[in-house]
C-alpha cells in the first residue's frame, strides 16, 4: 500500500443549518484531533461573525489521523464549506481539492435548495458523494422519508444513505469507515514535476499572503524555489504548515496532501486563486485546470463617514480581498458622499458580511448605497456597455434599450405554503418554468430578474413559508426590459447616491416610497425642503419638509393689523431668500433608509 492509499481528501456540503459544522466537530472528537479543553461548538468557524450568526462564511480545512478497523492509520483532510448561496464559490473551490464529498441532509427538513445545488456541483466535479441524513435524534425526524427523497430528487441510492446524529455522536465511527471505503485515494505522481493547486488564501500581518494548496503531483519542501504558473513569478518557500487542527510546521508536503505555503508573497497582484505552483528547476508543462473566474452579481458603493478615512478603507479592502477572492472594487466619487469605492459582491448577504467585517476588523464607519446589479446598455450605434451603477447610464438620446440579468430560481417549500410563494414570485415579475411535487414538499422553478431578489426576497420567502422555504439561483441570460433611471432631487438638486434603476411600472411606487422615507430623516430647516422623484425631466412623486416657523408677531399686541402683515411679509421674503441660497444636510440614516424599501 503506497502513501497515497492512506490519504482521503473530502469536504462536507449541505444546505445552510443542516449541521455541517456540528458534524465536523464530531469527526474531530472521534479521531482524537482535539483534546478535551479545546472542544467548543463550531470549532472550524474562526470568525466571531460566523459564530454569532451560526453560519460558515469561509471554508476551513483540518487534517485528522484515524486508525481504521483494518488496523491501518489514515490521513483524513477535511474541508468544511459554507451553505449559503452567496458563498457557493467557496464550495466550488473546496470541491476541486477533494476526491469525495459528504452530502448532509436534515432528517426533519429534507432536501433544500442548496442541497440540490451542492450535490450537482460535487457530481460535476467528479467526486464520490456519500449521502448522510443528520439530526436523527429530533422528535420530528423521518430519516427513511428523507432517504427516499434523496433517491427521487438527486438520484443517489436510498440504500447507501447513512444516518447520523452529529449532536449526540451516533453513527460517526461508521461514517469514518465509510469515508475510507468509498472515497478513492488521491491520484497523482509522487515524483517531479511538482504541481500544486492554490484553492484559498488569507492575509497574515507578519508573513504576508498565505496560500492554501492541494499538492497534486510531486512535493513541496522548505527552501524550494517555486514558480506561479499564471503570472510567472518565482518565490522561495519559507514555511509549510498543516492544520491539525492548529497550524503545525512541516518540512515537506507530498502528493495528495493539503497544507499552507508561505513564500514571501506580499502584494495582491502576485497571488491568484486557482493558480498552479510548480518547481522552478523542474517545471510542469501544463498547469492544473483551476477555476472559472467568479463574477460579482450585486454592486454597491462604500463610502467612509469621515472623508479622512478613505486611505484606511482602501487598505482594508486590499487585505479583505486577499481573504475573499470574490470581492471586487474600484474607486468611485459621489457629489453627495465624496470619495469611496464601487464594490462587487456575490449576493446581498455577501455584501452585508463584507461591510460588517470592514466595520469590525478595521474599525471603519461606512455608508452603503442602494445595491444594484450589472445591466447591459445597447446604444443606438450598436455598441454594448455594461454598467453597475445608475451614474453610468447613457443619455436617453444615445440609448436604444437596456437588458437586465435573469436568474433561474429553484425554490423548495412545504406544499401548504405554495400559494404565498407563487404570489411573491409573480409580484417580482417572475415567470414560472417548472413545478415538481415530492411528498409533502414542492420544488418550483421561476425565471426572475436578479434585481428583484437581491435585497429582501430571501426574507420575504422565509416569512411566506414560516421559515421552511429555501431557494438557490443561477444566472441564465440577459433580457430586454423597460428600465428607467429614478433620480431623487432635494430642493431641485439631484442626490447621485440615491439614484436607482427601476422598472418603469415600479417607478412611481419606488419614488413615492423613497420621498416618504427621506422626509422622516431630513431635519426641518427655516425654509421648505422639496423632495422629488423624477424620471428624466418628469417629476413623478413629491413631498415637502415643512419650514420651522418663528412667531415674529409675538410682541405685537393690539394695534393695527397692517403692522403684523408687514412683519409676516418680511419673514416670507427672508425665507424665500434662504431657500435660494440654503443647502440641505442629508444625514447618513437617509441613505440607509433607501436600502429598507418595502420593509413596512
Layout of secondary structure:
Layout: E1 7-14, H1 20-30, H2 48-53, E2 60-67, E3 73-80, H3 88-95, E4 100-106, H4 113-124, E5 128-134, H5 143-153, E6 162-163, H6 172-182, E7 195-204, E8 208-217, E9 220-221, E10 225-228, E11 234-236, E12 239-243, E13 247-250, E14 252-253, E15 258-265, E16 276-279, E17 298-304, H7 310-323, E18 328-334, E19 338-345, H8 348-361, E20 366-368, E21 375-379, E22 384-387, E23 399-414, H9 418-427, E24 431-438, E25 441-449, H10 457-464, E26 470-481, E27 483-490, E28 493-494, E29 500-503, H11 504-521, E30 529-535, E31 538-545, H12 561-581, H13 588-595
Parallel strand pairs: 1-3, 1-4, 4-5, 5-6
Antiparallel strand pairs: 2-3, 7-8, 7-16, 8-15, 9-14, 10-11, 10-16, 12-13, 12-15, 17-19, 17-20, 18-19, 21-22, 21-23, 23-25, 23-26, 24-25, 27-28, 27-29, 27-30, 30-31
